[in-house]
Amino acid sequence: MNLNIEHRACYEFDMPMTYTIQQLHLTPQDGFGQRVKNWDIRVNGKLQSYADAFGNTTHTLVLDEPHSEVVITAHGEVETDIDLPPNDDLFPIEVYLRDTPLTKPDIRIRNFARLFVPASGKLDEVVLTELMHGIADSVACRRSSASRHSSASEALAAGKGSYQDHAHIFIACCRSLGIPGRYVSGYLYTPQGGKMESHAWADAWLEGSGWHSFDVSNRQRANGIHVRLATGLDDNDACPFKGLTPHAKQSMTSTLLAHNMEQSQQ
Fold it and tell me: What is the average pLDDT value for the chain, to the nearest integer?
């Protein structure tokens, strides 16, 4: 698919601000089945671009003049479901076995993960697919980011969580089994309704075949309806927006629009 995407976010503050800084992961990259034809980010402040430790295209946004809102618009065209392999990893794969506060497995996570290991002990795509469905069966998905700061163990115990929680649980289970796992932030396109939404899923590494992507919330392998923005050990590394605005309450509105260019050409 050729997807024309526009993502607009607006932060409004309850008092005039003199300084705001944010980190943005809003720029897709070529690889892993997608090609970026064009992309641009516009803001009412200053932008500095760099590659972070995971190789993600990252922007630092700074507003150092009086303001009452931050407006961010990312837009461009991305071709998906094409034959482009993943980008080379900057870290040894073993880095993705590292626990974080959001993905640290407790005894419940470890016992849950072991339920999907066959008697042979072989860990493959079949096992990971069954794990994906098992998590979706056990943890009801709430279509919001209200619980995005829950840990994997907290979300599994609660039996409900967001798409971020689903990804964290999957990663925690993988790492508890010795399978490297990483978090992916991005967009999900719904062809039936022509809708685009922010989303998250997970990659798991299998020896001999590399990275495989699993969208737990939708019970499917990541495919041409997914657009990747960033990866990391968890949501804290890869979330689209991360900022610091001290001494102020803020509200955030976000709109995502997408258009399948191929449909319009038919």
Answer: 92
CA distances from 122 to 35, 105, 126, 210, 257 (A): 34, 21, 10, 16, 42
User: Taking Cα atoms as reference points, which of 203, 238, 199, 239 lies closest to residue 218?
Assistant: 199
Residue the block writes with tokens 């003199």: 18
Q: DSSP string covering 138-197, please?
A: HSEEPSSSTTTT--HHHHHHHTEE-HHHHHHHHHHHHHHTT--EEEEEEEEEETTTTEEE
pLDDT tens, residue by residue, 94-146: 999 999 999 999 999 999 999 999 999 999 999 999 999 999 999 999 875 44
Shared domain for 63 and 165, answered yes or no, is no
CATH of the domain at 205: 3.10.620.30
Q: Are residues 234 and 245 in the same domain?
A: no
- Looking at the structure, do residues 73 and 166 belong to the same domain, yes or no? no
88 domain-assigned: no
Q: Is the pTM of this model over 0.90?
A: yes
Closest Cα partner for 176 from 123, 109, 130?
A: 109
Residue 50 near residue 61 (C-beta atoms within 8 A): no
What is the rounded distance in angstroms from the CA atom of residue 55 to the CA atom of residue 90? 7
The rounded distance, in Å, linking the Cα atoms of 133 and 215 is 10
Q: How many domains does the chain have?
A: 2
| Rounded CA separation 74/47 (Å) | 13
The sign of the torsion formed by the CA atoms of 145, 148, 149, 155 equals: positive
Q: What is the pLDDT of residues 162-181, one digit of tens each?
A: 999 999 999 999 999 999 99
Chain position carrying tokens 């009452």:
68
